[in-house]
Write a structure and sequence with these properties.
The protein is of the alpha+beta class and about 230 residues long. The protein has 2 domains: about 150 residues, GAF domain (Beta-Lactamase); about 45 residues, Winged helix-like DNA-binding domain superfamily/Winged helix DNA-binding domain (Arc Repressor Mutant, subunit A), CATH 1.10.10. It has 10 helices and 5 strands; from the N terminus they run H-E-E-H-H-E-H-H-E-E-H-H-H-H-H. The protein has a 5-stranded antiparallel sheet. The longest helix has 27 residues. The radius of gyration is 18 Å and the shape is globular. The termini are far apart.
């Protein structure tokens, strides 16, 4: 259910959990995101612009430690991105390196068999988490997963999930809406329409969110000859 400030129920709790990671560990910033079919793909909370950018890069590329953490159901620890991150996800590693990020840690958000999303922690310098810190962060992630899922269920039961998604500051719903428009323009599948947006973003060195906004505002029409 949306609160008095127009944000979805539970957003404040997720933001507090993100700040708790930063207070508890020697990292620069943190972001909490949902991933997959259950709750969609979006950043729920971020401590700063760069934390949100880490999520956005992974969402746009479809690769990176948050995806791997959810897939493997285990933390992904990259204490030195130059040494540890380039092999598995070269495009992602190059993008975050250019943003000044030197270490990254992703913890899956799981509730039993349910895959909720991930928490990303980043540092501007190489950083190693001790085993005790890694376990504590995993425990925090478990608590965050329950909070995110509970908030989503409460919002859905109140019939306000569309409103909530629109008002989340890092909502990805705009990309879903733009995908529908590209689908109609080109007569292709939803997956292919999303790929068109992704490719245009890559070619123009922009984010998918920026391209999606232009599609919805009709500044980009992929059916027009000059856009092909």
């Amino acid at each position: 259910m949306p609160g008095e400030d127009g944000r979805p129920a539970g957003a404040g709790a997720a933001e507090e959990m993100a700040r708790r990671f930063v207070r508890s560990f020697p990292v620069t910033g943190a972001a909490v995101s949902t991933l997959g079919d259950l709750l969609g793909v979006q950043t729920v909370a971020a401590t700063d612009r760069l934390a949100a950018r880490v999520d956005e890069i992974q969402f746009d590329l479809g690769e990176g430690p948050c995806w791997e953490a959810v897939r493997s159901r285990r933390p992904v620890l990259l204490p030195d991105l130059r040494r540890d991150g380039g092999g598995a996800w070269p495009a992602f590693a190059e993008a975050v390196w250019s943003e000044g990020i030197r270490a990254l840690f992703a913890f899956p958000l799981l509730v039993g068999p349910l895959e909720i999303g991930a928490v990303d922690l980043y540092s501007r310098r190489p950083l190693t988490l001790e085993p005790g810190q890694t376990q504590k962060a995993a425990d925090f992630a478990d608590a965050t997963a329950r909070q995110v899922l509970q908030a989503a269920l409460q919002t859905a039961s109140a019939g306000g999930d569309d409103y909530a998604e629109d008002n989340r500051p890092y909502s990805r719903k705009i990309i879903h809406q733009a995908t529908g428009m590209v689908l109609a323009q080109l007569g292709i599948s939803a997956d292919d329409a999303r790929l068109v947006i992704q490719a245009h973003a890559f070619a123009s060195d922009r984010s998918m969110m920026e391209v999606a906004r232009d599609v919805l505002d009709r500044r980009i029409d992929f059916s027009a000859p000059e856009t092909r």
